[in-house]
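Lab meeting prep.
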Amino acid sequence: MVTMSAGRLAELTGGALVQGSADTTFAGIAIDSREVFAGCAFVAFPGERVDATEFVPAAVRDGARVAVVTRFDEVLSKALEGTGAAIVVVADASDAVRLLAAHTRSQLRCDVVGITGSTGKTTTKDFLASVLAIRLQVAATEGNRNNELGVPLTVLEAGADTDVLVIEMGMRGRGQIEALCEIARPTIGLVTNIGQTHIELLGSQGAIVEAKAELVACVPATGAVFLNGDDELSRSLASRSRAPVTYYGLSEDVSVRAEVLDVDEGGRPLVRLSEGGESVEARLPLPGRHNAYTAAAAAAVALHLGLGLGEVSQGLEQAKTTGMRMEVFAVASGVTLINDAYNANPTSMRAAINALTDVETAGRRVAVLGDMAELGSLSELAHFRLGEQVAVSGIDRLVTVGERARRIAEGARAAGMPPEAVLACPTTAEATKALDDMLAPDDTVLVKASRSMNLERVVEGIVRPHA
């Protein structure tokens, strides 16, 4: 992780050291006062509701040696007297973090893998990090830190001993991935797929392609690019690459191929991974046949970096994935819950529904599906068609949450799902109450929606039902 003196920090960020010694050193960055650790620098972000500068004294008491603030007054100065903490005032806290990250990246000599795509970014990152860690020292995006602040923080976690830095890159508009690449400077680029996510913001699928192409275009000629060979739009990005391109997928005309051999009672696929006439099998740690693509992507990059297929299999089978991504667990009531509530789009919704139908259950299969955001003019039809899929999938009960998701219910009824098996709820509270009465032991429940729907509240209601 980043280690330097307060004086050097001030120099790199254009800040001013207003208290303490320039020689005070720190190791690591914290941006949440609750996550401060001994010897770190605490960066206080001003907010509309809370100014983190108020937490600087507490952060110092908890071990921060340096604080980066955007304002400094007599009250704060007195509160820090005698602590030995160094205080650096900067014009913009976010810019300061980005400048520190850009400097840190310039000092790294490791490979940097940038991952983007419409779906599967986080799981791909998790799978790849697990595989690479079999042999290499890996730093990777934690949780969902894939934006203009999260990417610099991930870079700052890397150190001189890092062999590979794995960075997830999200996107909500043109130029954002390019800006992230200017900081991270990826030597390897991986695109999972290109779907309809963010079409409301970008206007067309062509614009989404252009946005994702920013990663491919930023990889140097000496690097490598990995594309989903089964996704036509992803394949089209090859022309933007200066680096050699490797295709992965399920079809026979790719370099690294995954085949789903079977799924177990929990819906977890057994995949065969093949490359250059050799193959290996791996049981993936979470349900969903679509995760074969994720496995193939991780395998392709790992093989490029010198790992063997046996190490790929080992890393995949022991991978720990980020929460709310096909997270399966049994609750006290006897219900099996598939928590995939972090985000949703038409592609990932269809994959999750298929995963639910693959899970063996002694009870009913229940899908709790909420709004898919940012689909623009495609929203009505996309929700309706998703309901049609639910109706023919063998799912026993459907509960929708939100106004857009009401079209899922309408599509399911139109495709023949019995009206009594479909319930449209406008809010998470109503859905939670309905599920309290509906669910029985041995039922298996999938919960999924776009992030803005906060369906983790429904998950919490299932885990802790009302008396």
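Slide two material, second protein:
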Amino acid sequence: MKADKPIECVGCNTFDVGSILDNSERDVHIERQYASQQEAEQALAKFTQKARDVENEPCQIHSEINPTENGYQLKATFTFSCQAEVVIFQLATR
């Protein structure tokens, strides 16, 4: 049974993590600018490898690299099988 409000323990400064990770957020959107197409492709390869390192089930990856006035823009969406993988991926790509 899931509570509507997280269970908090003020004395030990903790709360119920299950209330936060409810699998409602499984997508990570990345939008970055690079000087060259090669740099954008290398960045996408690094993000993809990090996703593969995190995934338990195959991560769905949709990406595009487009020229802009200032270089090349990488747009990518990584869809993981659970929200815990999203958190791990976000921490690994900071």
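Talking points for slide two:
Strands lie at 8-9, 14-15, 27-34, 60-68, 71-79.
The CA atoms of residues 11 and 93 lie 33 Å apart.
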